[in-house]
Amino acid sequence: MEVVIVPDAAAGGELIAEAMVELLRRKPDALLGVATGSTPLPIYEALATKVRAKAVDASRARICQLDEYVGLPAGHPESYRSVVLREVVEPLGLSPDSFMGPDGTAEDVRGACAAYDRALAEAGGVDLQLLGIGTDGHIGFNEPCSSLVSRTRIKTLTQQTREDNARFFDSPDEVPHHVITQGIGTILEARHLVLLATGERKADAVAQTVEGPVASIVPASALQLHPHATVVVDEAAASKL
Ligand code: GLP
């Protein structure tokens, strides 16, 4: 695992966006796995700026989602599908056809999970998967004690994650209880994992991820098992390393 400490979130966004540009130069139709939450926004801004400045032709890039809420109506502004379309797909000038994600509105949620795992494999696998980290060490929505070999599946959010994500909703009660998430085993199949963590709130989770044992109680520690994992942290998030 490579750990890169940057001065601040903007520098982290810039560094990771540059890595994505280099990937797209090598492989114009790369499948980019994106994450939601506040942390990756500087990456998406930096990448869109580079694409607009024609640093790279991203017109053949493909985008895929890491996770999704279950039960939000189609088009809800906080469904991760809506967020990824708004924050990534549209700013890059891509068509919605270049984008895939699990169907959180499906009646058969388990079927939708299996279908998404198959779709990722049929698309040739994820070339670069961006990850954030929850304050409890979760990646995607793989909460503590998730199996390290898990596949895409339905999960129940912990109270802490629902509280952490309540800021995106009008009231905390609106945060769904259930989600679909790529499993840890699914995530580990991506060719390159890039986790960005910023701010002091993430310092404990980062220290456990990087310096603790590989353990399902800290799902992000599974990155230690990956042959090409990069953890980018600002100084605040690195403060307990
Ligand atoms: C959610 C997402 C994760 C993300 C986490 C942290 O739980 N499912 O993918 O990493 O939030 O979000 P933030 O970056 O806003 O702290």
UniProtKB/TrEMBL annotation:
**Pathway the protein acts in:** Amino-sugar metabolism; N-acetylneuraminate degradation; D-fructose 6-phosphate from N-acetylneuraminate: step 5/5
| Coiled coil location | none
Glucosamine/galactosamine-6-phosphate isomerase domain: which residues?
Answer: 10-225
Q: Which Pfam families match?
A: Glucosamine_iso
The record's catalysed reaction(s) read: alpha-D-glucosamine 6-phosphate + H2O = beta-D-fructose 6-phosphate + NH4(+)
Q: Where is the active site?
A: D67, D136, H138, E143
According to the UniProt record, what class of enzyme is this? hydrolase
Recite the UniProt keywords alphabetically: Allosteric enzyme, Carbohydrate metabolism, Hydrolase
EC identifiers of the protein: 3.5.99.6
> According to UniProt, where does the site described as Part of the allosteric site lie?
S146, R153, K155, T156
Q: Does the keyword Hydrolase apply?
A: yes
Gene3D superfamilies in the cross-refs: 3.40.50.1360
Family assignment?
Belongs to the glucosamine/galactosamine-6-phosphate isomerase family. NagB subfamily.
Q: Which PANTHER family match?
A: GLUCOSAMINE-6-PHOSPHATE ISOMERASE
User: What is the role of the protein in this entry?
Assistant: Catalyzes the reversible isomerization-deamination of glucosamine 6-phosphate (GlcN6P) to form fructose 6-phosphate (Fru6P) and ammonium ion.
Q: Spell out the protein name for this chain.
A: Glucosamine-6-phosphate deaminase
